[in-house]
Amino acid sequence: MPDRPPLLSQAVEDYLKTIYKLQGDGAASTTDIARALEVSSASVTNMIKRLAQMGLAEYQSYKGVTLTRAGEKIALEIIRHHRLLETYLKEILGYSWDKMHEEAEHLEHHISEEFESRIEEMLGYPTHDPHGDPIPTRDGRIAEPPGHPLAGFEAGRTVVVRRVADGDPELLTYLETLGLLPHARVEIVEKAPFNGPITVRVEGRQEIIGHEVAGQVFAVPAE
């Protein structure tokens, strides 16, 4: 990754990572940032001003905040650390979904570039983490997240799960019990009208999942 300002606090890094995830192709609102980080709107406003002074973010009233290119590079570095660590903790150390995320959240701020390189080499240079999210490259590039929500496929289609939303460890544990994790082959058996439950077949078993849960699983048509 390119050079970055020295001695950034963990709070600054958390804000940069959160803004990057929320801004998408537009801008992140202060309300969404406050909700994601569980802090007050006043705290968000103060931090945004600080990030702007550091040249890491730009803010316009009523339009939200976006990261500068320098801010994005730092955010992607933290995300890279997090996703490599989650892969290591899950695949090598056998951590559960909730413990994996919690541990990676702490460690992502403290590992050296050498440690990062050794993990990456040990894992065989993975391109995606256990959730199926793309791992940013060392030079700050990231692929588009793969797949479309399972809820959007019609009954009768067979799809392959590519990724699952990573915001709720309890949801991940539930999806694991159903087998609805990356690489799973899933048949959409039936869809109830008006956003009702969806019946799927996974590994020979039929399961019924809610429309909201199906919106957190992303898949592509099976070949």
Topology:
Elements: H1 10-23, H2 30-37, H3 41-53, E1 57-60, E2 64-67, H4 69-91, H5 97-107, H6 113-122, E3 148-149, E4 158-164, H7 169-178, E5 185-191, E6 198-202, E7 205-209, H8 211-214, E8 217-221
Antiparallel strand pairs: 1-2, 3-8, 4-5, 4-8, 5-6, 6-7
Helix pairs in contact: 1-2, 1-4, 2-3, 4-5
Cα-to-Cα separation, first versus last residue: 36 Å
Order of helices and strands: HHHEEHHHEEHEEEHE
* Name of the top-level CATH class of the domain at 148-221: Mainly Beta
- Just name the CATH architecture of the domain at 148-221: Roll
Oligomeric form of this entry? single chain
Indicate the radius of gyration in whole angstroms: 19 Å
Biggest β-sheet: count, sense, barrel? 6 strands, antiparallel
Helix/strand structural class: alpha+beta
Mass-distribution shape = globular
Average pLDDT reading: 93
Tally of DSSP β-strands: 8
Explain what you see.
The chain is an alpha+beta fold. Among the domains are: 10-71, Winged helix-like DNA-binding domain superfamily/Winged helix DNA-binding domain (Arc Repressor Mutant, subunit A, Orthogonal Bundle); 148-221, SH3 type barrels (Roll). Helices cover 42% and strands 17% of the residues. A six-stranded antiparallel sheet has the order 3-8-4-5-6-7. Strands 1-2 form a two-stranded antiparallel sheet. The chain is globular and about 55 Å long. The model has no long low-confidence stretch (mean pLDDT 93).
At a glance:
With 223 residues, this protein is of the alpha+beta class. The protein has helices at 10-23, 30-37, 41-53, 69-91, 97-107, 113-122, 169-178, 211-214; strands at residues 57-60, 64-67, 148-149, 158-164, 185-191, 198-202, 205-209, 217-221.
